[in-house]
Amino acid sequence: MIVKGFDLGPRRLAPSIVVVVLIVVGSLLPYVSIEYLNQAIEETRFRGTLFPGAQFMRGIQPEYLPPFYLGFTDLTPGLNVFNLGSSMQQIGAVIAVGLSWAVLAEEVNKLFWWPFHLSSYLLLLGPIPLFIGLSMLREQQVSIDVGPGWVPIAVAGGIILMISLRAHRRLDTYGSI
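RESULT FIELD:
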C-alpha cells in the first residue's frame, strides 16, 4: 500500500516495526547491575535498563566503587570503555527509533538515510567496548554484570544495516553532481 510517497507494504513496514519493537524491548530489559557506595557510604546495588543505566554509569566516579578503597585506583579506563559501549547503544537506539520511518519513502532522503545507516554501526559495535570495559572492571574486582538488554538492541542494529543497505538504491539523487 502506497500512501503519498511512502510504501507501507509488509516488505518495508515489517522490518521497521521489528526494529522499533526490538529496541523498545531491549530498552526495557535489564542492562547493567553494579555494586557501589551511596552517599551514606553503604554498599548498594544499582540495577537498570539501558537509559537510566547508561546515565548512571556515565555519572559514577571511581571513588564510589568498593575496589577503589582496596587499592585499585585505576578504575577510570574500565569505566570509560564501558561507558563508551553503553552510550553507543543508547545514542544509536534514539537515532534508529527516530528515523525508522525514513526508509519507507519511495525516494529516500540522504539527510535521513545516513544517520539511520550509521546508527546500525553504533548498535552493532556497542557491545564490543561494553564487554571490554566489563572485563576491565571485573579484573579490578568491581561487582558488575551486564543483563540481556544489549542483545535485542544489537540484533536491531543488524536489521537496520540490512534495511538501510536495501534502501540505498532508492536514495534521492536529485541535484547530485
